[in-house]
């Protein structure tokens, strides 16, 4: 009887391990999402708030903050890493010439945060400009890494007053609506809020 018990236990353990190692990735293809692992600060030491490298340059300063929720849209999600990057005020991803990883394409205006115990995050930066001679609206890219799951991208941060904003919004925004509305400037900075729901409209999410 003991032999049967340990045999079943071994089989169960093998199935569990197999299930973990053969799990299908969520989120679908995501070029450049691996840049989230280039954080100069270990994930377990990341703060919930970051000022991107361009903040002290000339231009409209913005702060975007919010709460990241679990898939139920109610439970705050702690220890979720967010990676963001965007163009400068000329609409390009600026580089310094010393880049070695994805910052060759993403530029140096990028940063990482990790949600606090209440799911809060905060990002301070300059408002990005649209790509030169293109009809794509101003945007901030965002990638997310949840504990126990692979990284995946969310809908970009967009701005409600952008004349290039699509007239018909996405019906299935990844992570929830990414369009933010900036307030009037206070102390030299505009503010906006975006809450995020993990897994919302993310393929193969479990």
Automatic annotation (TrEMBL):
Residue ranges of every copy of the Intradiol ring-cleavage dioxygenases domain listed in the record: 53-166
A Pfam family: Dioxygenase_C
Keyword Signal: yes
Superkingdom of origin organism: Bacteria
Record key words, sorted: Dioxygenase, Oxidoreductase, Signal
UniProt-listed Gene3D superfamilies: Aromatic compound dioxygenase
Residue ranges of coiled coil: none
Cleavable signal peptide: 1-19
GO function terms (MF aspect): dioxygenase activity
Entry keyword annotation includes Transferase: no
Family: Belongs to the intradiol ring-cleavage dioxygenase family.
Protein's recorded name: Intradiol ring-cleavage dioxygenase
Organism: Chryseolinea lacunae
């Amino acid at each position: 009887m003991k032999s049967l018990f340990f045999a079943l236990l071994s089989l169960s353990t093998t199935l569990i391990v197999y299930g973990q190692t053969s799990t299908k990735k969520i989120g679908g293809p995501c070029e450049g999402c691996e840049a989230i692992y280039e954080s100069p600060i270990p994930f377990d030491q990341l703060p919930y708030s970051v000022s991107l490298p361009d903040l002290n340059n000339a231009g409209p300063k913005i702060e975007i903050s919010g709460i990241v929720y679990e898939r139920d849209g109610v439970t705050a999600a702690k220890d979720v890493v967010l990676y963001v990057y965007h163009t400068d005020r000329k609409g390009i991803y600026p580089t310094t010439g010393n880049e070695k990883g994805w910052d060759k394409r993403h530029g140096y205006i990028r940063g990482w945060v990790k949600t606090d115990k209440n799911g809060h995050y905060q990002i301070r930066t300059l408002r990005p400009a649209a790509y030169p001679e293109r009809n794509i609206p101003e945007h901030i890219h965002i990638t997310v890494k949840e504990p126990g799951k692979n990284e995946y991208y969310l809908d970009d941060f967009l701005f409600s007053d952008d004349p290039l904003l699509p007239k018909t919004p996405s019906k299935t925004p990844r992570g929830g609506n990414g369009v933010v509305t900036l307030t009037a400037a206070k102390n030299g900075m505009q503010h906006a809020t975006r809450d995020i729901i993990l897994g919302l409209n993310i393929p193969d999410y479990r």
